[in-house]
């Protein structure tokens, strides 16, 4: 358990810090890209609130990839900050082994180690796995909040901002917004992809709404399958409706 690092130590504060670093080094810590980019670096060691960042995991969408002879560089974006470079080594010596490239628009879970190269942060991936169930995106965000609450004994959101116990006279539950929604989760109950599709439809001011072709062109980093599934969900839940034909959509909020 992550909170085992909070047991009393005869070394006082220094001892507790050492214990926390040891526990963090043995765990794969769920993080967001913004947390990794904002982590402090001391003597080539990355720290989050005096806790060493060793093995981490992030979930995001692949924006682009660049293949090299011995590695592949991915750009992964989780919407919490700027995209982050992910480097995956390719085994060129194993006979009959071919490397499968993950195309842009696919959500992935990356596990690896944070590094710095030429003043730029990157994640050296040990494993990159495509996400088939979009519920895993929400699950990862909840794991981020829970892990950091256990590790630091403070209520934080997914961007490592401390949440006040009382805001405007309203007492908040740890890891919850005023509306009862977990930090980092859309209050509409939409996944990240569904939220992006909904935002694109809602931002269209045309009387007939936005057409499917324009929608896929605008959201070119998403797969057509993901857009279709999101449209089906948004229609069923009453967030959008069709207008002049079944391929033009408009938000019910407009």
From TrEMBL:
<dbReference type="GO" id="GO:0000724">
    <property type="term" value="P:double-strand break repair via homologous recombination"/>
</dbReference>
<protein>
    <submittedName>
        <fullName>Replication protein A 32 kDa subunit-like</fullName>
    </submittedName>
</protein>
<dbReference type="Pfam" id="PF08784">
    <property type="entry name" value="RPA_C"/>
</dbReference>
<dbReference type="InterPro" id="IPR036390">
    <property type="entry name" value="WH_DNA-bd_sf"/>
</dbReference>
<keyword id="KW-0238">DNA-binding</keyword>
<keyword id="KW-0235">DNA replication</keyword>
<dbReference type="GO" id="GO:0035861">
    <property type="term" value="C:site of double-strand break"/>
</dbReference>
<dbReference type="GO" id="GO:0005662">
    <property type="term" value="C:DNA replication factor A complex"/>
</dbReference>
<keyword id="KW-0539">Nucleus</keyword>
<dbReference type="InterPro" id="IPR014892">
    <property type="entry name" value="RPA_C"/>
</dbReference>
<dbReference type="InterPro" id="IPR012340">
    <property type="entry name" value="NA-bd_OB-fold"/>
</dbReference>
<feature type="domain" description="Replication protein A C-terminal">
    <location>
        <begin position="148"/>
        <end position="246"/>
    </location>
</feature>
<dbReference type="GO" id="GO:0006289">
    <property type="term" value="P:nucleotide-excision repair"/>
</dbReference>
<dbReference type="GO" id="GO:0000781">
    <property type="term" value="C:chromosome, telomeric region"/>
</dbReference>
<dbReference type="GO" id="GO:0006260">
    <property type="term" value="P:DNA replication"/>
</dbReference>
<dbReference type="GO" id="GO:0003697">
    <property type="term" value="F:single-stranded DNA binding"/>
</dbReference>
<dbReference type="InterPro" id="IPR040260">
    <property type="entry name" value="RFA2-like"/>
</dbReference>
<dbReference type="InterPro" id="IPR036388">
    <property type="entry name" value="WH-like_DNA-bd_sf"/>
</dbReference>
<comment type="similarity">
    <text>Belongs to the replication factor A protein 2 family.</text>
</comment>
<dbReference type="InterPro" id="IPR014646">
    <property type="entry name" value="Rfa2/RPA32"/>
</dbReference>
């Amino acid at each position: 358990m992550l909170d085992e690092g909070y047991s009393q130590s005869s070394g006082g504060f220094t001892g507790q810090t050492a214990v926390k670093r040891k526990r963090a080094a043995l765990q794969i810590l769920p993080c967001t890209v913004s947390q990794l980019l904002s982590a402090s670096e001391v003597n080539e060691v990355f720290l989050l609130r005096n806790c060493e960042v060793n093995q981490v995991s992030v979930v995001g969408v692949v924006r682009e990839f660049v293949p090299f002879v011995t590695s592949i560089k991915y750009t992964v974006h989780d919407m919490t900050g700027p995209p982050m470079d992910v480097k995956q080594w390719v085994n060129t010596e194993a006979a009959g082994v071919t490397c499968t490239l993950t195309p842009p628009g696919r959500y992935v879970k990356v596990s690896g180690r944070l590094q710095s190269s030429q003043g730029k942060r990157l994640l050296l991936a040990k494993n990159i796995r495509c996400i088939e169930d979009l519920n895993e995106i929400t699950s990862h965000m909840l794991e981020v909040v829970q892990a950091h609450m256990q590790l630091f004994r403070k209520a934080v959101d997914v961007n490592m901002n401390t949440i006040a116990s009382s805001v405007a006279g309203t007492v908040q539950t740890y890891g919850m917004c005023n509306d009862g929604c977990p930090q980092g989760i859309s209050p509409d109950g939409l996944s990240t992809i569904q939220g992006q599709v909904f935002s694109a439809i809602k931002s269209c001011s045309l009387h007939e709404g936005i057409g499917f072709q324009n929608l896929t062109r605008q959201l070119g980093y998403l797969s057509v399958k993901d857009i279709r599934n999101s449209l089906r969900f948004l229609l069923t839940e009453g967030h959008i409706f069709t207008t002049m034909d079944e391929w033009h959509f408009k938000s019910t909020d407009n």
